[in-house]
Amino acid sequence: MSDGAVLAVSGLDAFYGEVQVLYGLDLTLRRGEVLCLLGRNGAGKTTTLKAIMGLVPAAAGSIRLEGRELTGLPAHEVPKAGIAYVPQGRRLFAEMTVAENIEIGLMARKKGASVREAVLDLFPLLRQRWKQRSGTLSGGEQQMLAMARALCLEPKVLLLDEPTEGLMPSMIAKIRETVGKLREQGVSTILVEQRVDAVLPVADRVAFIENGRNRETVGVDVLRADPSAVKRYVGVG
Amino acid sequence: MAFGPHLLLAVLEGLVTAAVLSLTALGLSLVFGVMRIVNVAHGEFFMLGAVLAWAVANALGGHPALGFVAALVIAPLIVGAVAWLAERLVLSRLKYNPESTIVATIGLLYVIQQLALTFYGPEARPVAPPFSYRLSLPWFGYSAYKLSIIAAAALLLIATWLVLTRTKIGLTMRATQYDSETAQAFGIPVGRVYAGVFALGAMLAALAAVLIVPISQAHYLMGQDPLLLSFIVVIIGGLGSLRGTVVAAVLIGVSDGVVSMFFSPTLAKMIATLAVALVLVFRPQGLFGTAPR
Predict the structure, then answer these.
(1) What dotted CATH number matches B3-282?
(2) What is the complex's ipTM, to 2 decimals?
(3) Distance between A40 CA and the closest CA of chain B, angstroms
(4) What secondary structure letter does DSSP report for B292?
(5) What integer is the mean pLDDT of B201-219?
């Protein structure tokens, strides 16, 4: 394991039923960085996040959080170890209020009012919506709530699955700004995205996922200088 | 007896039925709502509650109130433990597959029923009511115990509602119901929640049975009617809706009481079944249910 790695995935195999999705995937997340997973539809990006969360069982390989093996843990113990997940499509508890969604986030690692206030300071708008049913929020507000709910764990590692999907540009900017703020606070983030332009401003490194394997991990400055890798793995420039 | 008092008596009898029915149906509705499991053995948990109530009251002796109160505490706890075990040993291993769990709970139905027949026997046995005070109305006397059933059921329903909406346990249960995968991603041990909900559902049925056994007697086949009526109530009220369950239980209970008294019990069952058919045709999600997501 390299120095400064907070999360290390190695040789990870994962299946959906009979279908193998991940083939010996390797990934290293350094402390305090934003690592972006980039790849085509069906490349295995979301599955990688679900496998880290224990929601898709790891058939082989290891996932270590600060040296602690996670693959043997039941799924509900993974967030308690300090990994928070913002799933694709937000997956809020839509029939519950904003307050109840936040409460579920806080309960996961038994965090109290001080964490709640710190999170709400990042997304002050949620205070005004406090008693509103979360399913009635706008798309951008729902994404804020999904991130706020995850941050209530005070995670060491944050997994974000396409947080900007279907949002208007002002909201995308807001999400991006939040990811930047979290990096300043020392949260290590894995960000799944489809579009490279959404990634370059916030990421430190980019891992290209193809056919369930990590083909290459490069720094964004390298990528800016030579974007050929994007064309190779994602198919668009 | 004149029509007015006769109707009052029928409504009172109907409310007693409704009280017991709403508790039993709420248990069924919780289990289906959170776990998506159709528990065919639910009526047997009801029966087990009544039979254990007799066993506890009989073993204790002494004043009827003592035996009854002991039964009210002990019988639901034992039934809850049985349900918890069944969930851990059987349902969880079937991965909560909808078809397999129906077959498994049918099996459970027969296992519990035959065990009751073996150890309790085929007799119908009464449990003495905790008090036998009769309320004398101008037209007829009415058992105060029956009225207390209505009050007890109302209290239990309110308590369940408070637990579901105001406590962390309730929040955990609702989160599991809406999205079990995301619930796990927030540290909720979904398996344990399922076991708890299954036990809670069975305990509600057992409580209902303990309440009714002083006026109806314990018998090893007594679980069939409550099961059928619970399904009727849950379908009419809308699955997973506590309010719908209570409204439908009152509707079915009172109409059952009135129709049974003025016409015949068979006609009452026919009307209830017709109501289910109409609801399924015109409002499949039930009166208060929300359309499936």
Answers:
(1) 1.10.3470
(2) 0.92
(3) 24
(4) P
(5) 95
